[in-house]
Structure formats: structure tokens, C-alpha cells
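User: Design a sequence. Structure:
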């Protein structure tokens, strides 16, 4: 399956409110509350050789996000974990992407639902492979990352991803693969679906989590660095520092650890990075963790 195949045309099963439905039957109504008001939360997970990487951490964050967004999950964390593994088995998948989603129902289209009813689903499918792309080039968008006073930053809610989708589509139309967002103070925050790291010498530098998601892959990279006595600095980083760094990479469930080839700062400057051995080391150690 390539990237042009609509997901609705896949086959298999989706776990939907405690039942395994055939793929084609897992549907919602057009008047679903979260479809209109983006009141859903989700996770992106990866299974390798039948093991879901960091499934406990992802499930904890799913429940935290749901709680922040006033979504009541009527299952326990263990029931969600068990359902995930049963779904992998039922779909005969060992290496795949997994998407849990929690959303509000059709009981009302009032913004304020008096007694909201919550649904939960889990889907999984083989990665959609395109042509491998060696270079990864990004720019800095003019859009500002919402602050923690505008949106709960550590919550993976669909509401904030509406602007992220627009940003990345703008980037692609301009010939880039993604964009860096700055926070309200002009500090580098993150990319649309990834955290960002810079390398200076043998040290890592990455933005604080005040205005960016503390991604699970981000945390994993910091743990790898700590275990290898690689110094890591979580701090405010301004765009004018980019040309002082020796390397750059992004992290996320889908991307893993992806090296950045260049950054267009938008000020008539394109900063190119050569292949970095430290990034290769981090990639190897991360990939080893995926199969342990």
C-alpha cells in the first residue's frame, strides 16, 4: 500500500468500544461532537517484532490527555493495553503503526455537553511506505506555537493539530519537509509532529518543555544520552543560534530519530548540516531499544 491509498480501504479489524469490528464497519456519524469541535485525544504508537514500544507511557499519556480534555475513558489502562495486543494478533501484525483515539459522541452539538458520552477506538496498520528520502529540509514558519495558557501543551489533542496540518502543508508547498515553530517569546519550540535537537560538539541542546510536547521519543533520546554520558541541555534556543550548531535532528514515534539536512531561517539564510556521527550513534541505540 502506498501513501495514496485511503485508509478506509484497508482490511482487518478495529477495536471500537470494546468490540472488534471489521475495518469497513468502524464508522461514526457526521454529527459527532469531536468532528465539529476537535474535542478528541489520541496517541501514535509503534509495534516492532510484536512489541509495542513504550506502550505503558503512551497509555498513561492517553489517559492524561483525556482527563485534561474532560473525556472519560470507561476502560482501565490495562484493558486498553490488552486490547492493543489482541488487535495486533487479530490483524496478524507484528510491525505496524497504532492509533488509539478518544472522542465525544453525537448526543449534542452544543459546545457544552451536559453529560458527554465518550468513545474509544484502536486501529493498527502496516506503515505506508513511500520512496525513501535521504535529505530532510525544514524552514521556520511565521505561525506561533500556542502557549500553555492557550492550550494544554502536554496533551495530545486534535484541536492543536489543525494548525499543525496547515503549517506542514504550507512547508511542503514551499519545497520543505516540515517547519519549526517558535513560541510566543521567539524561542524554538518544536516541529509540527516532532521534537527538535541540535548538536554542538559532543553535546545535545533541545528546547525546554514549557511550550513544547515532552515527546516519548524525546525522553528516550535524553535517557540514551544520559546512559552514554552525553551532556544534554534543555534550554531556550533562539533562531540566530542555529548556525552555531554542528548537527540537527527531530524525534517522534513515526520518524524515530531523523537527521535534518538543512534549515531555512527565513532571513535569507539556509544552514546546511553534514552527516553527524553522534546522530548515527543515537539512531543505532534507539533502534536497538525498539527490538528489546
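Assistant: Done.
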Amino acid at each position: 500500500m502506498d501513501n495514496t491509498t485511503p485508509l478506509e480501504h484497508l482490511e482487518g479489524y478495529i477495536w471500537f468500544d470494546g468490540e472488534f469490528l471489521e475495518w469497513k464497519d468502524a464508522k461514526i456519524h457526521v454529527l459527532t461532537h469531536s468532528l465539529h469541535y476537535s474535542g478528541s485525544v489520541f496517541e501514535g504508537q509503534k509495534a516492532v517484532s510484536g512489541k509495542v514500544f513504550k506502550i505503558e507511557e503512551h497509555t498513561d499519556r492517553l489517559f492524561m490527555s483525556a482527563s485534561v480534555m474532560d473525556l472519560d475513558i470507561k476502560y482501565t489502562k490495562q484493558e486498553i493495553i490488552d486490547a492493543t495486543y489482541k488487535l495486533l494478533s487479530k490483524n496478524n501484525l507484528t510491525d505496524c503503526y497504532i492509533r488509539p483515539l478518544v472522542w465525544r459522541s453525537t448526543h449534542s452539538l452544543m459546545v457544552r455537553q451536559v453529560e458527554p458520552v465518550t468513545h474509544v477506538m484502536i486501529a493498527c496498520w502496516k506503515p505506508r511506505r513511500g520512496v525513501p528520502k535521504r535529505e530532510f529540509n525544514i524552514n521556520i514558519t511565521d505561525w506561533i506555537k500556542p502557549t500553555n495558557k492557550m492550550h494544554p501543551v502536554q496533551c495530545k489533542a486534535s484541536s492543536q493539530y489543525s494548525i499543525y496540518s496547515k503549517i506542514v502543508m504550507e512547508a511542503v508547498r514551499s519545497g520543505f519537509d516540515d517547519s519549526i515553530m517558535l513560541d510566543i517569546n521567539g524561542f524554538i519550540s518544536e516541529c509540527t509532529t516532532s521534537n527538535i535537537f541540535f548538536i554542538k560538539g559532543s553535546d545535545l541542546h533541545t528546547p525546554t518543555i514549557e511550550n513544547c510536547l515532552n515527546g516519548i521519543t524525546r525522553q528516550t533520546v535524553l535517557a540514551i544520552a544520559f546512559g552514554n554520558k552525553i551532556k544534554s541541555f534543555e534550554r531556550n534556543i533562539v533562531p540566530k543560534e542555529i548556525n552555531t550548531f554542528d548537527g540537527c535532528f527531530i524525534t517522534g514515534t513515526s520518524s524515530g530519530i531523523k537527521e535534518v539536512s538543512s534549515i531555512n531561517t527565513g532571513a535569507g539564510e539556509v544552514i546546511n548540516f553534514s552527516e553527524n556521527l553522534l546522530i548515527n550513534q543515537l539512531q543505532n541505540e534507539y533502534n536497538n531499544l525498539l527490538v528489546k
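The two ends are 28 Å apart (CA to CA). The chain has six helices and 17 strands.
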